[in-house]
TrEMBL record:
InterPro entries: MFS, MFS_trans_sf. This is MFS transporter. Keywords: Membrane, Transmembrane, Transmembrane helix. It comes from the Bacteria. Signal peptide: none annotated. It comes from Marinoscillum luteum.
């Protein structure tokens, strides 16, 4: 009995720590935890559905490219809509729109370039409303000192759902195919998965309204010139975007080509996943801002190793190693990257006296340029060289370019420290004459 109490004591203590956080932060985390069950379906199985239906990797890449085109466009629209609508309503709309987009995709009789492109753009619009408002709310409900914990807990759940959801959905699709459920139609099976996605988005939309979040105070958010420090962060955003384009495209194609069906996709995602999730939570809970560069470096090195193994072996075993490395890399990268981004927004927005949403909006274009380059590279290589060459070597090129993020992120962090020290000194100097006058 004592042993059981000791086992339960730690989770109870961690939940108590969570309850100590500001209410707005807890509501936002709870919303994102529910939506975390939706993202793996969108990121993995929509690509697998297109691959199964078209057997053309270029259409999968086109879909992702139109998704990524829809995101910055919707960031722009969202910035104007924030003048008239509550941010929580726009956030909810983005989550609901992702389910609607999936329904439209599954309803296409033939996966033409036009139909896939339209569905992809609509999915990008849903992501735009979701990420634009999520990033602003995360910035407003956290501080630099608790952002490691915030993103650690968030990525803990994202990693768990990235393991659990592919296993469950993969099992369901595989069982439906083997047993002839729904008349043996895989399209109907995917539609059943989409129904569950819509229910989850409705639930997440209800939870986010448990707190009244504030909209940005300033209306203007469109600028073309920024501080040098922000321009350097945009370079880091471009590198991040470059790898994002591959992480939602290459794994599904590799697994369908070299491993098997969607059931295998879910099984591979589940291997060693529980250990990864727990490790990520502990990293977020125990580390401080000074550890972010080390976390970023570890993630990038792991990802580079996975791409090298995949390129050299190019077999089912190589794909398994690559996907496992991807499962480790992505959350490690996010735990380090997002707090660095938020820190820079804190100091630069104070320095330039601008609306924080202006930087969130501009940041998305840095990501988009990277995504466009990454996916464009894949499409060009697959079209004019070969699909095999694109899957084997372009990933390695992207991973090696990603290593540039390490020295760049370190430089950006040091510059942000200097900016903050300068602001503190300036405030002190401004207060001295007033203090002397009062004396």
């Amino acid at each position: 009995m004592k042993g059981l109490f000791n086992i339960l004591e730690k989770p109870v203590r961690e939940f108590a720590f969570f309850k100590e956080q500001p209410k707005a932060m807890r509501v936002l985390l709870s919303t994102n935890m529910i939506y975390a069950f939706v993202l793996p379906v969108i990121e993995i199985f929509v690509g697998a559905y297109i691959m199964r239906s078209s057997d053309d990797p270029k259409i999968v890449a086109l879909y992702q490219l139109t998704v990524y085109t829809g995101i910055p466009f919707t960031f722009l629209v969202n910035g104007y809509l924030l003048r008239w609508f509550r941010i929580s309503n726009l956030y909810s709309f983005g989550m609901l729109l992702s389910g609607i987009s999936m329904f439209l995709m599954m309803g296409l009789e033939t996966l033409s370039f036009t139909g896939v492109g339209a569905a992809g753009f609509l999915m990008g619009a849903s992501f735009g409303f979701f990420w634009a408002n999520r990033d602003y709310l995360a910035l407003g409900t956290t501080k630099d000192q608790n952002r490691n914990y915030y993103y650690g807990l968030e990525t803990f759940f994202y990693t768990l759902t990235a393991i659990i959801v592919p296993l469950l959905v993969g099992w369901f699709l595989g069982a439906a195919n083997r047993n002839g459920w729904f008349g043996g139609s895989m399209s109907v099976s995917y539609q059943m998965v989409t129904v569950v996605v819509v229910i989850l988005t409705i639930l997440a939309s209800v939870v986010v309204h448990r707190d009244r979040f504030k909209n940005p105070e300033q209306n203007r958010f469109l600028y073309f010139r920024f501080d040098k420090l922000w321009n350097k962060l945009m370079g880091l955003a471009g590198l991040k975007g470059m790898v994002q384009g591959y992480l939602v495209t290459a794994p599904a194609i590799l697994i369908m080509r070299l491993v098997g069906d969607e059931g295998s996709l879910g099984l591979i995602q589940g291997v060693s996943g529980a250990f990864t999730a727990i490790m990520l939570y502990l990293i977020g809970r125990m580390t401080k801002p000074k550890h972010r560069i080390a976390i970023l470096s570890a993630g990038l090195i792991i990802f580079t190793f996975g791409t090298l193994v995949n390129g050299l072996m190019f077999s089912s075993v190589g794909v398994m190693v690559f996907v496992l490395c991807k499962v480790l890399f992505q959350p490690l990268h996010d735990i380090a990257y997002f707090p660095i981004q938020m820190r820079v927004i804190d100091v630069v927005s104070a320095r330039e006296k601008r609306n924080e949403f202006a930087y969130i909006f501009n940041h998305e274009f840095g990501l988009y340029l990277g995504r466009f380059f990454g996916l464009g590279l894949f499409i060009v290589l697959a079209t004019y060289v070969s699909e095999t060459f694109a899957l084997k070597y372009s990933l390695i090129v992207v991973a090696l370019l990603q290593l540039l993020s390490i020295p760049l992120a370190k430089h950006i962090t040091n510059q942000a420290d200097l900016y903050e020290q300068f602001e503190v000194k300036t405030e002190v100097q401004e207060e001295i004459p007033l203090a002397v006058a009062i004396k």
